[in-house]
Design a protein that fits this description.
single chain, mainly beta, five-stranded antiparallel sheet, 5 helices, 39 strands, 5% helix
Length: 610
């Protein structure tokens, strides 16, 4: 039996494992909770040796106020053995979301394991409401059969409970914390200290704490206590200060919740305004009147605190950020939430922006954010050169830029969001082959830039041409008609921007012109009909700007001298006679000197006709 008598001086090896009690869910607002449940033990196992196996089922009735709105509901079931992950509730199968286990080794005995499971049954409780709930098919027969130590030590138990968290407008603003896990105290581990955090006590009026524990025995009240902040809890006559775990249910005032405890205590005088945590201590083990050491086996499953709390809870989400190629400006979109709160978040709550921990900018909320509300915003920042091209961007709400807040919150540790940012660095400019065209006058030529690039680059992305690198980087003032581009200097650099998301590729090449061989026509007709009225040597004028042209008649007499500004319209401007007159029909000899080191003088005959 659990109260095996031993001599006090003997030391035994401890063998146990557990899941520490930790915060599972937190609710802030007009919330409270109620719990129902039942044991599957027909009697207290430490007093009655007539049974080993638990009952096949048991039931409990939910009676929740009509003004309450169910928010969450969790089913817990526990027993001896390594666990039964599947049970039924009102005939519906329930699968465990997790199984917690603890081990206990009796002196000179094998290790015994105990388990607890839980499942979220919110939808079922909302749907069914205030009815009787029956739990069945919690099968631990294999463990009890194959390991007789459970029954011989009288630690054969099974039971269940449902926790219902609800909202009611008539309630004060509370913070409800649900902690769960599985921890054990026994004759080998006589004391357990559990620190529950994430508290924020604004007003301790009506403060309460609840427990779900297994395997407690009313008859084993040796050194047994439950305290908070070193204040021993009691709830007489149901729960005495020296026998906290005694098979009771505070919600129904039952003392036949065999080998299970579903209790709640008023802790108004045991917790102080401003507290952010509380220390729970459980003890068991003492000597009886005959000097024999005796102890109870107690397994704590969950803890619930309900405390008045009227505070905001600022959180922030980094929704999006935008960076552009070669630009150290970053545009940040964010949303500030006040979701898990019991009061509004004031306007002008500061927001700090950090790059690798260095503050790079500051903004603030604009409006008061109500409970459950949010506000979106945006900020544009210029990154200093000291920030690397890859950095951790962190947004911190309720942060004055030095890591300090100005608003007291429910939770001061959930105020940041971050993302790894990589700037889009200006790509290196790649050089393409230069392009040459014939001079069409004044050192300018025509270029089909699109055709030239299509012969070099194969891409389906957008291509733009620019006359300066600054315009390329800013993506402005691109060349409007690149299919028919005329250079404005010789040579001239052309810049090419090829879209390559999320950035682009950049290229450059030079266009230049050269003087191509002029074309000399075989004749012309200076008759003022508007067609072929002058000796139009194509590719000459405004190209070979220093050229000289001489015309001779068939007798070798020089009759005309021209240059870039003086074209031959068939008129005589040399010799002694006939100045300004048209030459007669006939063939004339020309000498064209381009005055270009790349070209020799050109001579030939031209026919003049009218």
């Amino acid at each position: 039996m659990k109260s095996i008598m031993v001599i006090a001086s003997i030391v035994f090896t401890i063998s146990s494992s557990a899941q520490d009690i930790n915060l599972f869910e937190q609710y802030n607002g007009r919330y409270d909770y109620i719990a129902i449940g039942n044991t599957l033990n027909p009697f207290e196992n430490n007093l009655d040796f007539s049974f080993c196996f638990p009952l096949e089922s048991s039931s409990a009735t939910l009676n929740l106020s009509s003004s309450a709105t169910i928010v969450s509901a969790y089913l817990y079931w526990a027993g001896s053995g390594t666990g039964d992950a599947n049970v039924t509730l009102n005939g519906l199968p329930i699968d465990a979301e997790d199984i917690y286990t603890v081990d206990y080794t009796e002196p000179f005995s094998e290790t015994l394991t105990y388990f607890s499971c839980y499942a979220n049954i919110t939808d079922m409780i909302i749907s069914e409401g205030n009815i009787s709930y029956e739990l069945a098919d919690l099968d631990i027969t294999e463990a009890l059969t194959n390991t007789p130590g459970y029954c011989s030590n009288r630690t054969n138990f099974a039971g269940w409970s449902i926790y219902i968290i609800y909202e009611d407008d008539s309630l004060p603003l509370n913070q409800l914390n649900l902690y769960q896990g599985l921890e054990i105290i026994n004759r080998n581990n006589q004391e357990k200290t559990i620190v529950i955090d994430n508290l924020n006590v604004i007003d301790n009026e009506g403060a309460k704490i609840g427990f779900l524990a297994w395997e407690g025995d009313n008859s084993l009240n040796f050194g047994e206590s439950l305290s908070i902040n070193d204040n021993v809890l009691s709830n007489p006559p149901l729960n005495l200060s020296d026998n906290a775990f005694n098979g009771t249910n505070s919600f129904t005032n039952s003392n036949t919740f065999y080998n299970a405890d579903l209790d709640v205590y008023n802790i108004q005088d045991n917790i102080n305004i401003g507290d952010t945590n509380a220390t729970i201590k459980l003890t068991t083990g003492d000597f009886d009147e005959f000097g024999v050491f005796r102890a109870d086996l107690i397994i704590i499953n969950n803890i619930v605190t309900v405390l008045n709390s009227q505070l905001p809870d600022a959180t922030i989400a980094l929704d999006n950020y935008v960076v552009n190629c070669g630009d150290r400006t970053i545009v940040i979109d964010f949303t500030v939430f006040n979701t898990n709160s019991t009061d509004s978040l004031p306007a002008n709550t500061p927001i700090a922006c950090y790059a690798d921990g260095v503050n790079i900018g500051q903004t603030q909320t604009e409006n008061e954010i109500p409970i459950g509300g949010s506000e979106s915003g945006s900020i544009t920042l210029m990154l200093p050169d000291s920030v690397d091209d890859i950095f951790l961007l962190t947004l911190s709400v309720d942060d004055d830029g030095t890591g300090n807040g100005i608003v007291t919150e429910i939770n001061e540790n959930n105020n940041i969001d971050d993302a790894l940012v990589e700037l889009l660095v200006v790509p290196p400019i790649q050089t393409l082959p230069d392009q040459i065209a014939c001079n069409e006058g004044f050192n300018s030529g025509s270029f089909n830039l699109v055709e030239l690039i299509s012969e070099i680059l194969i891409t389906e992305e957008e291509i733009k041409f620019f006359e300066s690198l600054e315009d390329l980087e800013a993506n402005t003032n691109d060349i409007i008609n690149p299919e028919n581009f005329s250079n404005t200097s010789n040579p001239q650099t052309i810049y090419v921007r090829v879209n390559n998301p999320p950035c682009y590729e950049a290229y450059s090449f030079e266009v230049s012109v050269e003087n191509c061989p002029p074309y000399v026509p075989q004749g012309f007709s200076p008759n003022d009909d508007g067609v072929n009225d002058w000796f139009n040597i194509q590719g000459l004028y405004d190209i070979f700007e220093q050229h000289e042209l001489k015309i001779f008649n068939r007798y070798g007499t020089l009759i005309f001298e021209g240059d870039n500004d003086k074209k031959w319209y068939g008129l005589i401007n040399r010799g002694l006679n006939n100045h300004g007159k048209l030459v007669p029909v006939g063939t004339y000899f020309y000498v064209l000197n381009p005055n270009d080191t790349n070209y020799q003088p050109v001579v030939g005959w031209v026919y003049v006709n009218y």
